[in-house]
Amino acid sequence: MPASLDRPPGLCGDFARNTSAVVGLLALLLGLSILVLPLSPLYPACNSQQILGSALTTPAAAGAAAPAAAPATAWLGAPSRAIPPNVTVMVFGGSTTFGRGVSDPANKWVESFRRAFERLTGSNVTLVNRGRGATTADYFASCFSRYLNGQPTPTVFLLEFAINGGNVTRLVESMLRSSDAPVVLVRQMACYPAIRYSSATDLDARVSWPEQREEQRTAAYVYRLHEFDFVSHVVPRYGSPCSADSLPKLFQVHEAPGQHLGDLGQRLLGEFVASELVRNWDEVFDPARRAATPHPPAFKETCFYADEVGSACAGEGAACSIENAFAPDGEGWSFVAKAGRKDKVCWQADRPGVRLTTVDPVEFFEATIYAEFTDRNPSTMELFCGNQLLKEIHLKHGMRGSMVKAAALHAACSGQKLTVVSKDAAPDQLLRVCGISMFS
């Protein structure tokens, strides 16, 4: 069980029996206060989130600069384990981490986090933001070590996948195999569609879809990770974040209202994560914690990625260009550029029935295919190992726009070529294969 969820000693011990009327009255008042506090069901009754008061002030008028939060060191306390003067924080997440929803890039929650952490600690923060819109945790789990190449050694990883979901456990395992830095999970929220998150009493109804939430909880439990719960932080001040009153304050409302945190919501999230990281610094970096963490399974991984345009494999576990993995079998597949980028990134089909086959035979007991598509006209693809059909994948998602779909393939393929067949592609129904990761 994550240490951040342990019951702190001394806060809720049974009161010693005492005949004093004053002590009895205090005990009664304490019991009543616990009953009325809006505590998260994920936390023990006596571990309520402390609120940074200046970060929960009434939002300024539209267009006004966000007021700076006062230092929170008074209630955070100084960690006994020294915080280094230079800290590198690498953040992985979806569109909120990328910065969707803010009016200015400086208002991203990761930038708010950096400023708040530096203000609280005096440390200098090097921030590496790997946020990518409409992308699940699976996308980053493949060939994870490539994200560390050419970057400062991370002091800590922050993962924000409570909305986009995916196999967070697999991503955490990839991180633990590649780095000694601790991993912290950030649980933010969405109200999209808002009607699904309108409960005034149920905290779980105010967060992301249940299966996505459970993926993050599982990773936290198995690998003893801290999870910073932003939902419980804002509820005492705002009530249901998705209410008619709070949603316009916390979320961007111009497109898909409730899907992305707005300027105020992102600022609160960043300041909250900074204060929680400082407050839990000793436990996050406790060597005994990592020593007690299960060792992630060791897999041989072969992966081909859209981001590695033109590159050839450079050894086991290296990311190669997806262009090198496949050769189009017949007409209909071409290696194309993604809109807004100059480089070629994906294999694309625009007609049904065409085949895309690996150059070499493959070996895997599990694989992940990364396909990009638009929800307006979703596509279907079939995956074959030699002549054997392994899986038919329907590329459909509930959000609008271009998506990266991570399709897990829990089927072995040995000594045969892997083939992707576009079942119902068309010029207005494009199918793009942008990556593949294979574990053997």
From TrEMBL:
Gene3D superfamilies: SGNH hydrolase. InterPro entries: SGNH_hydro_sf. SUPFAM superfamilies: SGNH hydrolase (SSF52266). It comes from the Eukaryota. Keywords: Membrane, Transmembrane, Transmembrane helix. The chain crosses the membrane at residues 21-43. This is SGNH hydrolase-type esterase domain-containing protein. It comes from Raphidocelis subcapitata.
